[in-house]
Write a structure and sequence with these properties.
The chain is α/β, with parallel strands linked by helices. It is built from nine helices and five strands; from the N terminus they run E-H-E-H-H-E-H-H-E-H-E-H-H-H. About 50% of the residues lie in helices and about 10% in strands. Helix 3 runs antiparallel to helix 4, helix 4 packs antiparallel against helix 5 and helix 7 packs across helix 8.
Length: about 220
């Protein structure tokens, strides 16, 4: 990371897994530490609302490029940028809906320039949200595709679980393990969220671990 570029955190995950809420909670927490923080919202959502439809195959790449352009612009003017998804999610949906995997190379190359990647777990209830929501049945397949893409590209990531304040605590603990942020709240979160299988990519295994931690 160069001195003139902000630290960039990517939030990835299937639909209705709390990415937007977590981005806001993280931003509020880091702003309270005196940092300049910018949240880059999901451009695909903005596009769908403006056009009142979902994009066609040939419109996927421009959407992915605009998402990344906005992240770059924010990183030039902030200490920390929180990307409420990246072009990786555009690539995954393009492959799912149109059997077009050509965006993966662009999206994953871009993701390698990010400083931290958090994946939101499937433990929050699914909520309908207009044009962008396909249904709860697609969350597990999308989650598997995200994990598979990250692992094939050797992009390190941490999975975030928890409801309400617990999800923020999980994210702070993950960022602390990556050496992104430190402080007493992070230390406390790390003491609560003890991950016994950091290398495991099995969502069922992680969910069982999460359930045990909630029961403490």
């Amino acid at each position: 990371m160069s001195d003139c570029r902000g630290f960039v955190i990517a939030l990835l995950g299937a639909e209705s897994t709390g990415k937007t809420q977590l981005s806001q909670d993280l931003a509020h927490h880091l702003l309270a530490q005196g940092l300049r923080v910018i949240v880059v919202a999901e451009y695909l959502r903005e596009w769908c609302v403006r056009e009142n439809r979902t994009p066609r195959p040939e419109e996927q790449l421009p959407i992915a490029q605009e998402q990344e352009r906005r992240v770059d612009a924010a990183a030039a003017d902030a200490d920390v940028v929180i990307a409420d998804t990246t072009s990786v999610m555009v690539a995954i949906y393009s492959a799912m809906l149109f059997e077009d995997g050509t965006l993966y190379q662009f999206a994953l190359q871009r993701l390698r320039s990010y400083d931290a990647v958090l994946l939101t777990g499937l433990d929050v209830p699914w909520v309908a949200d207009g044009l962008q929501r396909d249904g709860p049945h697609v969350r597990e397949p999308v989650d598997a595709l995200v994990r598979g893409a990250l692992e094939r590209a050797a992009v390190p990531y941490q999975v975030v679980y928890g409801l309400g304040p617990g999800r923020l605590a999980s994210a702070l603990a993950a960022l602390g393990r990556m050496g992104v942020i430190q402080g007493p709240e992070v230390a406390a979160a790390q003491g609560t969220w003890v991950w016994q299988c950091d290398k495991c990519s099995d969502p069922e295994c992680e969910h069982r671990l999460f359930s045990r931690l909630q029961g403490r």
